[in-house]
Each structure stands twice: as C-alpha cells, then as structure tokens.
Write a structure and sequence with these properties.
Length: 431
C-alpha cells in the first residue's frame, strides 16, 4: 500500500480532481500557500500496483512531477479502498510492478556507502576463499549472504533502462571495482594462507571440489548468470523481498572471483583465467538479463514515445546503449569461444571413452559416470582432466585401462589429459 501526496496548482485543480474522481479514488485536499504558490496538497492511499496508473492519469491533465511524494503505509481504510484492491491487486488490472519513479529510488536506497560496500565485498571474498580452500559449501554460502553486489548490479541496470547515465555508470563502475577488490582480497588472503603453511603449497587446487566448480566455464554457468539477473530485476520491480535475490547474484560472482585470487596465489594461470572468464560471463549476463526483464515489465526512459523507434533514438541514449552493447559483445564473444571449445571437447571425450570401453578387452566394464575438467578453453594451457567411473566384476584388475584411455583421448583431442579411473565393484548390467 502506498500514500501519494501531490501538489496541485489551483489552475489545474479541477482537471486533476476530475481525473481522480473518474478513477474512483478517495482523497483529502489541504490548502497550501508556501513560497507564494496557490495550490492544494492532495493526499490519497492507493495499492502499490496502482501508483504508476494514477500518476500517469495526473500527468495527462498537466500535473508535473515537481512535488510528488510516494510513501509506504501498512494499510488504509477509505470508502473505495476495497474496490481499488479488487481492481489492481486481484482484478483485471493486476500488476506486481512498482512505479517507475519508485524503482529508481528503491535501487538507490539499496546502495550502501562506498566504505561499507567495498569492506563487505572484501570480507565476503575472504570468507569465500576460505570456503573454497576448505572445500566447505556452507562457508561459501555464508560469503554470498554478506556480499553486497546486488546493489551495484541492479543500480547499473535500472540506470540503463531509465536512461540515467550517471546512475548507470556509477552502478557498473561499482560492480567492476568491487569484483576487482574481491579478486585482490582473495589473492592476498590465499597468498598469506599458503605462505603461512595453513594450506600445503604443493596442494593441487584443481582437485578441490569447490574450486573445480568455479574454474570450468560452461553453458550452465551462463544460465546461472541469466537467471540471477532476471530474478534481481523481478525482485526490485515488484513487492518481492530482494534479500534472497542478492544471494543469488552473489552466487554467480563472489566464489568465482575468489577462485581467481586462489589461482594467482598458486601461480596456476589456467585456474585464474578460467575463473575470470566465469566472472565476466556472469556479470555481463546479469546486466543484460536484468535489462530485458525491466524492459518487459514496461520501464522506459523519460520522454519515451511508444510506437516510434526513430523518435526515441537520441544521441545520449545511443551513446550509453552502444557502450553497453560493445562491452557485452566482447565479453560474450570471448565466452562463446570458450563455451564452444568446452562443449566440443566434452563431446569428443564422451565419444572416445565409450569407444575404448566398447573394445573386447573391456566388455565386462560398464560406464557409471564421466566428468570432464577443462579450465580455460585452451587459451593458456591444454591440460585437462577426465574422471571415468566404471563398474567391474569383483577384484578384476584392468591395469591397461588408464593408459589406453589417455592414449586414445590425447590422440583424438590433442590435449594433455590427466586420467582418473574409479572402479565400482559389481557385475555389469546387461542393456
């Protein structure tokens, strides 16, 4: 429920009141003579979903946005409030989205001060780094809860869709710098942990499950970023609480940023680059999917004219959109190459592993699971890992399985491949 307070000049009072009466709204009029302005302050309670509709009706009769206050209230009892709720909340004009002006204020109110924002980002990165090195999902989730990246991501998206260039650049800049702070903080903490001997320096960080999940960009990673941005936009534009949505956005960004720092601290270029690609993919997809959702919900820049494209293509709007599109194309084009190589490599591995197991020497083996690790799309290193789990007869040795798999896969893919074979005891099932 919202309470609207609108300053209506005397010369436009009759038209404004007529518009409110046509909408069957209950209002209170208060005479206002401050600053030598002859006007009335009209106060009326409306459902949240009706705010934009009412403001549009007032703008059509000449009421400018010089003095309009929209505040949140718990409830209201007026003669026509139940009809309004039935109309806008449950009825034919049901719409969860909030007013255009309100979404801008809501996005700005989510943004903490710079010191708080970067401090919380640093703390979340340190916690995420600890969780990754300890291979603890619970600690990694904890880092997402305190990460403040939702404010920067949604501020940038709202600024773009409303054509507020300062808001857009402030949001995107805060997001980029914040992720940079997270990576640097993760590197510093990981380096101290390694130098202090808290984690053995010779440990294979790619063998840690939580790290593995953040250094191998794939199609599902892109899906996570798209869904996070879309959920954030829906959460901001409606009455849905955005606190849980903030965790979703942090899922797509903070652990991957921490993995970048870990990769640099361990001197593993493949890990660092793979995680960095994941961060770039998710950050870009969050902004683009959020923009698409806001546009779908009907949010537009000031002075936007429906039904005409050329009339809305001003130089300022084109400049902002062009920068966003150019950056997005560069990131997604690079990500597309990585994802394409990743998918192609996985298909080759799947085909070749099955071909080896179809050999007469391994007819009693049954493929149970096949996992592929492909860190950076081949940009820096061709090293990859393949884990093959097979079911075999009890105590039947297969000493040549790993060498055969390695030789066959390396010949097919031209990659250096580390093979791990896991045996599950039990007779293979007939298909």
């Amino acid at each position: 429920m919202r309470l609207l307070q609108v300053l209506v000049p005397d010369e436009k009072r009759d038209d404004a009141l007529r518009a409110l009466d046509e909408e069957k709204l209950d209002y209170v009029r208060t005479s206002e003579c401050s600053d030598e302005v002859e006007a009335e302050l009209v106060t009326l309670p409306v459902p949240t979903q009706a705010v934009e509709h009412v403001l549009t009706s007032l703008r059509e009769v000449g009421i400018e946005d010089e003095f309009i206050v929209v505040s949140s209230i718990e409830t209201a009892r007026t003669p026509g409030i139940e009809d309004l709720e039935e109309r806008f909340v449950n009825g034919r004009e049901e719409d969860d989205s909030i007013a255009r002006d309100e979404i801008r204020t809501k996005a700005l109110n989510m943004t903490p001060g710079r010191v708080t924002y970067y401090a919380m980002t640093l703390l979340s990165a340190v916690v995420a780094t600890a969780g990754l090195l300890l291979d603890s999902p619970a600690i990694v989730v904890g880092s997402m809860v305190i990460a403040p990246q939702i404010s920067a991501a949604l501020t940038g998206t709202v600024g773009l869709v409303l054509d507020d260039r300062r808001m857009f650049f402030d949001g995107v800049t805060s997001l980029v710098i914040g992720l940079g702070v997270a990576m640097v903080g993760a590197f510093a903490f990981a380096w101290l942990v390694r130098a202090g001997g808290l984690v053995p320096g010779i440990i294979d960080i790619t063998a840690i499950g939580q790290v593995q999940n953040r250094i191998s960009p794939g199609l599902l990673a892109l899906v996570v970023g798209v869904c996070a941005g879309a959920a954030g936009a829906f959460g901001l534009a409606t009455a849905i609480p955005v606190s849980l949505v903030g965790v979703m956005i942090a899922v797509a960004l903070i652990p991957a940023a921490a993995a970048v720092g870990i990769g640099v601290a361990w001197g593993d270029t493949g890990v660092a680059l793979g995680a960095f690609v994941l961060v770039a993919i998710n950050a870009t997809s969050i902004l683009l999917s959020g923009l698409a959702v806001f546009w779908y919900l009907g949010y537009r820049p000031d002075e936007w004219t429906p039904g005409t494209l050329t009339g809305n293509l001003t130089r300022d709007r084109l400049g902002t959109v062009a920068v966003m599109i150019a950056i997005s194309l560069i990131v997604l084009a690079g990500a597309g190459v990585v994802l394409g190589q990743h998918v192609a490599f996985e298909n080759e591995v799947n085909d070749e592993v099955r071909a080896v197991l179809d050999d007469d020497d391994y007819e009693e083996l049954e493929l149970v699971e096949l996992e592929t690790e492909f860190y950076d799309g081949g940009a820096v290193t061709d090293e990859t890992g393949v884990t093959v789990a097979v079911r075999r007869p009890a105590d039947a040795p297969y000493p040549d399985l790993v060498p055969d798999l390695r030789e066959s896969l390396e010949e097919r893919t031209d990659h250096d491949i580390a093979i791990v074979a896991e045996f599950v005891e039990g007779a293979a099932t007939d298909e």
